[in-house]
Amino acid sequence: MASLIKSISLTNFKGFSEEVRIDLRPITLLFGANSAGKSTILQSLQLVREVLEHGSPDVDSTLQGGKAVDLGGFRNFVHRHETGRVIEIGFGMELGDESLPELAGDAFEDLSLADAEVWRFHETLNSIRASVSTLEVKLSMSWSDLRNEAVVSTYKLGFNNIWCAEISTGADGRQPRLRMNANHPIFLADDIEGEALFHELADWVLPGQGTEGFRTELGLTADDNGGEKDPEIPPSVLLAVLEIVRAASADSPNPGFAAWLHRFKGAIPELDRQILIPANSPESAKDIFVLQAFSGFMSWMLVGPLRLLSEQLEKSRYLGPLRCIPPRGFEASLSRNDAAWSDGMAAWETLLSSPQEMLERCSHWMQHADRLNSGYGLVRTEVQEIDYNTRTPLGRAKPRIALVDQAGLTHQALDVGVGISQVLPVVVAAQDDRASIVSIEQPELHVHPAVQVGLGDLFIDGAIERGLSFLLETHSEHLVLRLLRRIKETTEGSLPDGASAVTPDDVNIVYLEKGQDGGVIAHSIGVDANGKFNDRWPRGFFPERMREALPPEVRRRMEAGKAGSVS
Fold first, then answer.
1. Does the residue 60 lie in any domain?
2. For residue 251, how far is the Cα from the chain centroid?
């Protein structure tokens, strides 16, 4: 499945201080020196998944990281270990054909279609839902001295690149308060039909209660840019909707909607529960419908984005920097273990139970001369245990995965070079389209440069043909050179048979380095349609090889800083 996550932003997380945004393409490569912050970006996905599932940002081990990741808790991963700093991690998502999850059924079916006011209310909420195409979620995590623990202090939500709602807590991480942008375009009636809609809804309020008072009471705001508030109240459908809800006997929300925010963990709502609107004896079926419909709408708006993000992170995969070699007689575990991908063992388990077509596809990538050409394919056999005395079968036959060489001989993973055990999980992850984002540290580890070049084609195939998104922490110039070549061949129409077309929009190459203040700086290296870099590569594009080949006097000038960088 294609990932909906299109960007990640980090502030005060590990080596990152000022906000750094990384745009995610189908193939995103992270380059840079050791300890430049590449792995931190991958770990941010795991941290937020833990926060959404358990509510606390004081995380050490993670579900996906296994033994490869130990964050050490908030005090360890906040920038410079300064607990006065606030960690912010944000995600940008594009919905495409997806929609935000709903937590409630459609209450409208319980009421007569003849009720025009109910119908209009129902259609208004649906029209707001339909107007959302992108969303931005940002979580702020801070240390509470009052509670002596880390808390999620702010949850900020944007729709269509404009902030829409923000939930924040007090210093103790409790008492959540909600602010909404009543002037967000999804709420504004900016055409003739919209004006009529606003006035029709605004008429359905308690006598004498106008929207200006409601705006002041609830602390609704017009924008997030520090601009002066327009003294004229725009035709905000949200304000009219809130008046209708209050007229339906809803309890007073109190400043910041405090009475409506139940069972929050810090600023985060529970992801499996509706936001319930308390009411004092609604008088009619219409009132009941309004309260139910608005409860569903608030849940859609505030809980839906976090549920969608959580689902995307749950479907992501992480392959750590060291993949294990399966022992002889390896069998798949009976229970799911998300951390099994971190050491590569989940890849072998996948091959044990996958359809034959998947096994053959992975074998082709491992073995074929136009693919990785590793020298080994894959074969799945079955082993039947027999009782020695009675010669009768013991249970069901068990599948086994073996490596087959060019002579047709089979081998266990323990009996071949370590590079095979490192690259095979990469191949399986790149061919299994059940994931969203596939994060891999050093996919080129322990493999020959010729195989590293082939990894470029593997990731192109996984991204273009399987719909996966790859986030790759790498040091391989061979991998990026293959990508550049395929972009050029796509433009020229000279792709070899079996190669997938790839464009500059499919690839983002990011170079990370430490700034003078110790924080991380990210440079996005643009690529044009001819497979050339649009931007200068910081410190040169893998200049070590060229330096080694240069005459000594030129190398000495370069090392003295007189010859400039190599690009």
1. no
2. 37
> How sure is the predictor about 556, in pLDDT bands with cuts at 50, 70 and 90?
low
Domain assignment of residue 404, yes or no: no
Three-state secondary-structure class, residue 334: coil
Prediction pTM value: 0.88
Three-state helix/strand/coil letters over 406-451: CCCCEECHHHCCHHHHHHHHHHHHHHCCCCCEEEEECCCCCCCHHH
Residues 6+ apart with CB under 8 A from 470: 26, 27, 28, 430, 437, 438, 439, 440, 459, 462, 463
* Six token digits for residue 365: 């990538």
| Domain-located, residue 565 | yes
Q: Give the residue-averaged pLDDT of 369-393.
A: 86
Dist CA 476 CA 453 (whole Å)? 9
DSSP codes, 88-152: EEEEEEE-TT--PPPSS--GGGGS-TT-HHHHHHHHHHHHHHHT--EEEEEEEEEEETTTTEEEE
Identify the bridge partners of residue 211 per DSSP, sorted by sequence position.
none
Average pLDDT over residues 410-428: 95
Model confidence band, residue 389 (pLDDT cutoffs 50, 70, 90):
confident
In a domain? residue 557: yes
β pairing state of 27-32 and 5-11 = unpaired
Which pair of structure tokens corresponds to residue 360?
């053959």
pLDDT digits (tens, 9 = 90+) for 133-153: 999 999 999 999 999 999 999
Please give the tally of structural domains in the chain. 1
**263 Rama sector, left if φ>0, alpha if ψ -120 to 50, beta otherwise:** left
- Phi-psi group of 373: left, alpha or beta (phi > 0 → left; psi -120 to 50 → alpha; rest → beta): left
Query: Quick one: which of 466, 463, 456, 476 has its CA closest to 505?
Result: 463
Domain that residue 547 falls in: 543-567
Give residue-wise pLDDT tens across range 367-378.
Answer: 999 999 999 999
Place of tokens 């433009």: 491
Average pLDDT value over all residues in the chain? 85
For residues 325-352, give the mean pLDDT.
88
